[in-house]
Amino acid sequence: MSTPITDVSPSTSAADQASDAAAASAGVQVRMLSELSELEGVYQLYDSIWRPDPKNPPVTTELLRALTKAGNYVSGAYDGDELVGACVGFFSAPAEVAMHSHVAGVSAAARGRNVGFALKLHQRAWALQRGVTAISWTFDPLIRRNAYFNLVKLAAHPAEYLTNFYGGMHDSINHGDDTDRLLVRWDLDAPTVTTAATTHPTGLTIQSMPEATIALSRSADGHPVIGPAGFGGGTVLVAVPEDVEGLRQTDPASAKAWRAALREVLGGLLADSAQVIGFDRTGWYVLELPARGLI
To answer: Do 186 and 134 meet the contact criterion of CB atoms below 8 Å apart?
Structure first.
């Protein structure tokens, strides 16, 4: 199955321009992949990033081949002839207007160059050309840089806290921890998303919120501290650790404590109708809780 390209609208043209600019800034070329050798390259790239259990890789070459044949999204970012990033997504219900972005990764050598941003803007432009209006994906809410990237740099909106979503994952990144995830929705034509695609948003800062309630904070030695229960509505702050991936290696007990605390606090707030409205780059989710809500 191939998905037809819709008529080019002004928003689609602007998305293409933003995608081209992001790729040029990152020093890469982003293009769709379909040849077996290219798809094998994606498999090898992901294997080098995650170093997964051989019995459970993020993708296989065969799966990627099937996804591309069915008209889904598999792209690669190239620095010259070298594949340094890739992104894989597929259509989701309702298939005519929605996609789920399953996995994206950038090689260690290319990190810090905004290659991931270029990949996501290419995915956005590709999707808009086909009439897709929203893309969803999941990320580990404990990883600070990913929260900032998804919620501020891309302006995606958190929709649901998912507990141990993938079960045990025996790879170099997730090993030894539950796979809680935050599901986000990226409304491709939303004004905030359109602005984020062409500017450098800074996000909210907790210094501007002196009256906010702190529901989860960090102690002096970096451990989670859950605030008092029973507060009402308003602005609520929820902290994450500075480097949970490092903690998993150096202090697994602390990493597990952070997982449990964030699940209780952030998961509980979202279940109680709170909305994530931003993320402070120093490691704080900013939420608004309706006045009727209590935890």
So the answer is: yes
